[in-house]
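Bit of a strange request maybe. I'm writing a small parser for structure token strings and I need a real example to test against, not something I typed by hand. Could someone generate the tokens for this chain?
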Amino acid sequence: MSEAFIRFDKVSKAFGILTVVDGLDLGIDKGEFVSMLGPSGSGKTTILMMLAGFENPTSGTIRVGGRQVDGLPPYKRNMGVVFQNYALFPHMSVADNVGFALKMRRVPRAEAEARVKRALDMVQLGQLADRKPTQLSGGQQQRVALARALVFEPEVVLMDEPLGALDKKLREQMQLDIRELHRRLGLTIVFVTHDQTEALTMSDRIAVFNHGKIEQIGPPEQIYDQPATRFVAEFIGETNYLTGTVTAIDGDRATIDIGDGRNLTVLAGRSVAKGDAVDLSVRPERVRVGTASANTLSGIVEDVVYHGDHLQVVLTAGSHKLLVKADRAGMPVAIGDRLDVGFAPDDCWVIGS
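Reply from user aminoacidic:
Good idea to test on real output. This should exercise your parser:
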């Protein structure tokens, strides 16, 4: 198995008695887009700062392309960095902002001008090269910051919540723009965010952090559909929890007694044994109303909320409460109604604590 392009090996970082990154082992392949996702204080930005060279590990090593980089100053790491506040010089033109790193590296003027033009063309801002940052919209400033990170052709681009200051529509457009640049240029991108939708939209893999450790890492669809722990299930989207006891195991399927005379067939998800008490996770949009399913529950509607493209229905089924995202077309639902709902075994997952 080939060595990862970026490798964190047992990396920890402490500030006094507070450990914010704890024994991190993580590999990132060349050309991969990896998002570090987690709440504030989970250690994700500290990891990015150690990779960039703005912080040093307390212990462990960081390698890029087989070369140990912890201890090297930032300018020797050949990494572009995009921050949330963009950090543009207001008195400089767009072109001068983008070319600043080249000037510091004493790149010949003609070559620097060509690189600046190429970088601005990449982000579709070539026509605004002479403007000042204050004359640009938030999205345009973000593009300038991205061009500045790309202009010296770095091995890695690091992004620390760069879209956090943008409104929803512009943020969603920039997510697609950055993703398209990643694909077109083959960039290796490490992206820090606390926005679950952002991570799901953009990433090849997502590393979900909690208290300085990775709770789970994998492709977006795996993180969402098969959360490894309750924390991951709660942090990524909405989910329903059911509790029960394993009564039988057949390959990767388990039969779970959830009480009230109900048995469910679900994906095991982790190593379980007959008699184990387990938690189950099923996403609200995977629960179907009034359709034949392997797992069927019946309950009383407690609340109905209109969301435009769907109805959010809260249902009490025995000792369990379910959130259902139901298709509103031709389906009148009212509080107090009895409703049958169901879901497939592959849509219900045994999770860790």
